[in-house]
Amino acid sequence: MAIAADQYPQPCKTIGMIRFNPSVLGRRFCLLGFDAGLITASFWGALALRLNGDLAPQITNSAYLLPAAIAIGLLVFLGSGWYRGLTRFSGSLSLYGFPPRAALVALTLLLVSTLHGGAQPPRSFWLLFWLLLSVLVMGSRIVLRDLLRFCIQWSGQGQGQGQGQGQGRKTLIYGAGEAGLRLLESLRFDLRFSVVGLLDDDPRLWGRKVQDLPIHRPDQLQVLVSQQHICQVLLAMPSTPLSRRSLLVRQLKAMGLEVMSMPSLGQIASGESSVSELRPVAIEELLGREPSEPIPELLKAAVQGEAVLVTGAGGSIGSALCRRVLSQRPKVLVLLERNEFALYAIHQELLAKALAAGVELVPVLADVADRPRMEMLLRRHGITVLLHAAAYKHVPLVEANVCAGLANNIFGTRSALDAAIACGLKRFTLISTDKAVRPTNVMGASKRVCELLVQDAAARMAEQGSGPICSMVRFGNVLGSSGSVVPLFREQIASGGPVTVTHPEITRYFMTIPEAAQLVLQATGMAQGGEVFVLDMSEPVKLVDLARQMVELSGCTVRDSTKPDGDIAITFTGLRPGEKLYEELLLSDSDEPTGHPLIRQAQERSLPSEELHQLMVDLGQALDDWDRQEAVGILQSLVKEYQASSGPP
Q1: Catalytic annotation on 426?
Q2: pLDDT at 95 exceeding the cut of 50
Q3: C-alpha span between 95 and 545 (Å, rounded)
Q4: Which residues, at least 6 apart from 58, have a Cβ–Cβ distance to it below 8 Å?
Q5: Is the pLDDT of residue 52 over 70?
Q6: Cross-strand pairs, 365
């Protein structure tokens, strides 16, 4: 592929330790000549303003100072870094840095004049010279900045028209607060956008202007869209409540507008994103509740400075836990995963961050059900905290593969738990699910058995007065996880539909993966042993409403009885084996608050240790025989609330 000459980087020459770029040097020489002219104008201007009469004698007497003024001025400008800034990006802060430079030039010139002993200009000349030099140089930079920006914008538009692209898309910014103003400044010369105005809910701003752009009332949006052919709206409302943003997005999408949003103030402040990093509004931003702020002490309590092992490290929850654990600077982080590609992916993602943080990162291909291997790993790496996220979680698949699901979920948990006790770990945390509450499927029932195992272990540790602090954290669906409906809906929308929902009334709790991970760590930090922590999942969401929002966010319309010519249909396929209409988070009718407002503690029953042990022996025998019917019968004895569905043999 041929490359135009102007695409190559400009050649640089190196002399000593200084690199010289010809184009940069050329621009700087031009600025030096320009500033020499401004110094000359300031010098004669100050004399003219001061004398206001016959200038000839004074000009003759003071002419010897002009070369000194130019030399001193340029040396001060060069030495103070005045020419390092880019003129087209000159802002107030850089310009305000010039008057002290001008004062230094005037004072140095005064010193030279005094030492020379020749004719002296009037005393007020020095103040006038400083003022004129400051005004002329700062004013010239503002003019040059705007002229350069205009030329860049004009040339870019001309090139775009030559390529058939035309000017940027007609855009409105929703939000005229600080975030909106910062966004407007960032996009002012971005050729992708042609910002024609702003919208804001504050009546005090209506009718006013920002950078010569009007601020409109929200109820004028429909008129603006039709009159000015608006294509998209940029949401600059990072601190607005989630419910308000969700309503706005639905209203804007209903008008056929593309909606994009800027990052949150937290992301901007932390350096994760910049103001101008606009992105389409994601469904994760419109569901659930406002993201919670973690309590730093609870996050640190569990893992900071510890050797941590995460099972299922390549899964949706496991990988999020690994990211959050790494941010708290553990001594060692062991990633245990039996899926080779998933382990490779999370290891590659975290490797650079671990090196930067000085954390030893160890990827391990292993099966959590292999107890001898687990004990060897725990001892070899001195593990003190084990977060157990490995499990089969896909309800229909586990329902169709009962024995495999029970063997992995239940006996994998028992293996990890027994290894943690044998190796004397400090903490063991089980990641559970809302499907463990009054389960109607094997996956949920298996996770309830895992909870019973952890409860039993915690009771034994309490009797002994030693051993790991065993606890569990229960929560609902996480948005975007491998088993979530969100990726499925996205795939169906991308292929043109239909979007399939099992039942018009089916609801689910949702939480974002990062928030779930940080709440799990905080629950682990506050655990004393035996707790069943339940995360506040806010209000449940109807899946049909979720599907409709995702269709609209994709820029399409839903095809139904009111819109027979819509783009994508939503169809109902019927409940699958083991699927419930509504999920629950508590078995009992009450729970207790904890030290975190979004973490509750459930009061759940447990099985007597002897009964649990015998049923586990029976279940192990049934799985050895791969006897599905027997295994389900024992599962019902373990979990009294479990109502088995009729599934494949």
Answers
A1: no
A2: yes
A3: 53
A4: 47, 51, 121
A5: no
A6: 337
Q: How far apart are CA 547 and CA 551, in angstroms?
A: 6
Residue 642: CB atoms within 10 Å: 21
CA dihedral 532, 535, 537, 543 (to 10 degrees): -60
Least reliable range by pLDDT among 97-111, 268-282, 347-361, 393-407: 268-282
Q: What is the pLDDT of residue 645?
A: 65
User: How far is residue 318's CA from residue 324's CA, in Å, rounded to a whole number?
Assistant: 10
Helix (H) or strand (E) holding 122: none
Q: Which of 318, 327, 411 is nearest to 370 (CA)?
A: 411
Residue type, 383: I
Quick check: 346 pLDDT over 60? yes
Catalytic residue among 435, 447, 542, 580: 435
- Report the b/e string of 427-452 with b at 16+ CB within 10 A: bbbbbbbbbbbbbbbbbbbbbbbbbb
The pLDDT, as a whole number, for residue 648 is 45
pLDDT digits (tens, 9 = 90+) for 128-185: 889 988 888 888 887 877 776 666 555 544 444 433 334 567 888 888 888 888 788 7
Instruction: Answer positive or negative: Cα dihedral of 235, 247, 238, 277.
Output: negative
Is the pLDDT at 6 greater than 90? The verdict is no
**Residue 118 phi, psi (nearest 5):** -80, -165
10 Å CB burial of residue 313 (0-12, 13-18, 19+) is buried
Separation between Cα atoms, residue 145 and residue 88, nearest integer Å: 4
Rounded to an integer, what distance in angstroms lies between the CA atom of residue 301 and that of residue 523?
Answer: 10
Instruction: Please say whether the beta carbons of 335 and 362 come within 8 A.
Output: yes
Residue range 604-621, pLDDT digits in tens: 888 999 999 999 999 999
Burial of 201: CB neighbours in 10 Å, binned 0-12, 13-18, 19+: middle
* Encoded tokens for 87: 């003129």
574/529 Cα distance (integer angstroms): 41
Position 81 scores a pLDDT of 77
Cα 219 to its chain centre, rounded Å, is: 31
CA geometry: angle at 94 spanning 89 and 100, to 5°?
Answer: 155
